[in-house]
Design a protein that fits this description.
It contains 17 helices and 10 strands. It is of the alpha/beta class. The strands form 3 sheets. A 6-stranded mixed sheet has the order 2-1-3-4-6-5, sandwiched between helices. A hairpin with a 5-residue loop joins strand 7 and strand 8 (about 350-355). Helix 2 (about 30-55) packs antiparallel against helix 3 (about 70-85) and helix 4 (about 100-125) runs antiparallel to helix 5.
Length: about 500
Amino acid sequence: MTPASQISTIAASAAPIPDQPTLKKRWSRKVVSDLIAIADLSAISVAAILTAVGKGAPHGHGASFSLSGAELCLLIVAASHLTLREAGAYRAVLHTELRASPLWLVTALLAAFVGTSVTVQAVAGPTAVSLSWLVFWFAASTAGLAIVRLTASGLLSSAVAKGKLRHHVGVFGAGRIADIVAAQARDPASGIQLVGVFDDRQQVRQASSSRTSTSGNLESLIAMGRQDLLDEIVIALPQSADCRITEIVRKLEHLPVKLSICTHIAGELCGLSHPAQAVRSLGPLGLLDVKPRPLNDWAPFIKRLEDATISGIALFLLAPVFLGIAIAIKRDSPGPVFFRQRRHGFNHRVFHVLKFRSMAVMEDGGKVEQARRADPRVTKVGRFLRRTSLDELPQLINIFLGDMSLVGPRPHAIAHNEHYETVVDRYASRTQVKPGLTGWAQVSGFRGETRDTEAMRARVEHDLTYIENWSLWLDMRILVSTLWCGFVHPNAF
């Protein structure tokens, strides 16, 4: 059976997934929740503008000081956001959960208006804010919130029907716990889509008393993770299988999904360093999160915006440099301007990395020799390009197209990946994010040729530190460090 047919068989035997949505088509609940909060605040702000147009200035007369409409608007909008958030207005985004009592929303909004106006009047006097102005604004804000909630409920109902808000879960380990997860998935309010139950012991799959049928083995589960069919994997094994759980976590942690295990397993058992380990509940089932999904919620959007903006500007400004280098390469030696080589990208997807050709060879097979000092394969122009790292500039095209990122683990040749995955622990976890033009390992001194396994292990440790601690600030720090230190490096040859 081919990998493609195996995936189809797995998906067909598991719970149905509408149109087999990928992660790119599914929505982050955190992002949806934040967008609803932004819409609520926008509705309150628009109501303030309408009130100002209809009622004029918000303040009365005889106060020790007066507030402008903009100042009062900022105060009450901020108070409304805090009140609604504390009241739990943004904790759930499923359409069934948005059908909150109108009285509940009105009460939270009223508390913000009353609390702010009372505070202002206590400081500035009873006439500091016009009562009729506040009443008009409150009525308009209430109508605005009602419109936002009705619109959001309709949009989310459609999104849920299309599977865009379902949390796709795969379970490893056939048995009672898998039955619990399956029971939770049947509840529409849970937002869970059970993709399948997997176990690598054939006799267990055949003899299991579980009411939920199994969909395949561990390799099948990994294949589904690489097809972006999973958001989370729950390891549902008995307490007696502690050592086996450790082994399974090690085999699954390179996938860009959330990993959870039963809470009877101690957090330090798996030997992972993720700081965000937390205990949560899934119905009656307790789960320990041992690995979060990297770059979740707003992070993919922010990082993609960063990559597209900066790479687009850089390509425009560096167009003359590209042209000059292309002419120099063609005049120096026969062959193409660009060197294309297969690399592993996000989630082990293969893409072709672009470089300016700096060698007389175009290696891209089962054996790729790393460049070394005084390498005879390097051309005259190529030696300058490699010394100044200008040969890497075409990767801005990879970044603009979305195959790479400005910052991330450097992509290695596939032949090198296949070798180091067998000798360096957690090496495959580097593909949880897109590869980068530069990275934390590179600005920390780990770039160029890796002469031994220990050098590669140090590079991998820095790459994983970056993945586990990503932030926009960290990206900016790495980019500035790359520019500050310059592109010339002793290990660039």
